[in-house]
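Pinned message: reference record for NUDIX domain-containing protein
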Amino acid sequence: MTGPLVDPGSVPAWLSPLVKASDGLDWRVFSRLTPPDGDSARSAAVLVLFGEGARGPDVLLLRRADTLGSHAGQVAFPGGGADDGDDGVIGTALREAEEETGVDPAGVRPIAILPELFVPVSRFAVTPVLAHWQTPSPVRAVDPAETAAVARVAISDLADPGNRFQVHRPGTSYRGPAFEVDGLFVWGFTAGLLSVLLSLGGWERDWDHDDVRDLEWETR
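Predicted structure (tokens):
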């Protein structure tokens, strides 16, 4: 099941357009974020958690530890692979978010499920779960071996044209959106998803798509 889980009128007005826009989406909306190619991908989920902080609407992000075997040091949404005991993709997303950031699931209201997307590097078939942080709780890097930092990043900062550009990996055809905000460099799957969500939510501002920078980041 994909699409809204709640009545768009039951969420804050700034979040309602995104809930409405989640209805009827398929993976093609997400451009380079393609669906799995067969049965070899492992099921996973990420929690895209929207709250309201001191600087207005925000989203919860983390930076992965530099010592991890894959996606080391990269900025990501809380999430990971499904466990047998999870209650579907929502259960996976909430469990992983609690394990990685300490967020209290009791204060989180899932509001929409997006189409499953494929991450070739890790061979995960990832389902993004959108949620509203109704009752915010303290967050932190629970296990430094997995998570280096946790941050609530303002939507207005992500939408700021000065914080947006594209990255190109030399020697490849890869080109994708990226952000530099609050000391975080966001690219890859996370930046691709954020870029689409800014558009769907009506938060996107005009930015320079011709600002393309070489990606000087080791991908593992």
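Pinned by admin. Summary line: The longest helix spans residues 88-101.
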